[in-house]
């Protein structure tokens, strides 16, 4: 399991300060829509120059041509992982997969299933289907379309792996490492939830960057992750 730091701070200087504090630690950096629109592609390069793997989380969702060309532009930035909305449909997803196959080095393609800010009632309103059922449906759509994995909550991760493949990656946002503080998220989990769910990537933001000592808390999280990983292999 790998840690992704969500870089959702209000300005570039705050982002750079945080990155300087956690530089050298074993983590990825997730740059979302807000930061990318504000800072642009050059900021992605600055993050990479600091030695971090980059996860560009733009959740692409458009017509087939626009999605595949936008994904190609993301890949040209040298990022290691990008996100596509599964709801764009199989044709669009497959077109992106085909476009990425033309590259010598392609980023991981992760399909967004159900946003963790949605609860069961909101999922019913949007998709007219139960949350778990719709998450599995979208995950299987991503799997058969050739994506590398999906973004889902910890509560769907295990079922998705059972329905697809143990090698099909899951990335779980809304992880609160030591307590279930929800903020604007509805389906949150802690580190143990993520390990039980066999998540491949976890995303943590506010618990790190709102902490007065982000390097220390990140080191604690990584240490707990290593300890949980060792315990799983011993059991």
Give a nutshell description of this structure.
By secondary structure, the protein is an alpha/beta fold. Helix content is 49%, strand content 17%. It has an 8-stranded parallel barrel, surrounded by 5 helices.
Approximate helicity band? 40-55%
Radius of gyration: 17 Å
Strand content: 15-25%
The helix/strand series, from N terminus to C terminus, equals EHEHHEHEHEHHEHEHEHH
Largest sheet: 8 strands, parallel, barrel
Distance between the termini: 17 Å
Give the strand line-up of the largest sheet: 1-2-3-4-5-6-7-8
Coarse structural class: alpha/beta
Estimate the global geometry from the Cα principal axes.
globular
The stretches of 5 or more residues where confidence is low (pLDDT under 50) are none
Count, helices: 11
What is the average per-residue confidence, as pLDDT, rounded to a whole number? 92
Total beta-strand segments? 8
């Amino acid at each position: 399991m790998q840690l992704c730091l969500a870089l959702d701070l209000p300005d570039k200087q705050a982002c750079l300060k945080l990155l300087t504090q956690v530089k050298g630690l074993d983590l990825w950096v997730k740059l979302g829509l807000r930061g990318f629109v504000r800072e642009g592609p050059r900021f992605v390069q600055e993050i990479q120059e600091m030695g971090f793997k980059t996860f560009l989380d733009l959740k692409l969702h458009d017509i087939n041509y626009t999605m595949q060309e936008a994904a190609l532009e993301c890949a040209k930035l040298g990022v290691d992982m990008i996100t596509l909305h599964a709801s764009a449909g199989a044709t669009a997803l497959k077109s992106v997969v085909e476009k990425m196959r033309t590259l010598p080095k392609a980023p991981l393609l992760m399909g967004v299933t159900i946003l963790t800010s949605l609860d069961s009632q909101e999922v019913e309103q949007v998709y007219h289907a139960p949350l778990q059922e719709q998450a599995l449906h979208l995950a299987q759509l991503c799997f058969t379309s050739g994506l590398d994995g999906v973004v889902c909550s910890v509560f769907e991760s295990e079922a998705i792996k059972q329905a697809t493949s143990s090698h099909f990656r899951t990335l779980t946002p809304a992880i609160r490492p030591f307590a279930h503080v929800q903020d604007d998220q509805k389906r949150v989990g802690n580190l143990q939830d993520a390990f039980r769910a066999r998540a491949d990537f976890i995303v943590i933001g506010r618990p790190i960057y709102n902490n007065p000592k982000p390097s220390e808390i990140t080191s604690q999280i990584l240490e707990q992750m290593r300890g949980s990983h060792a315990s799983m292999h011993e059991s």
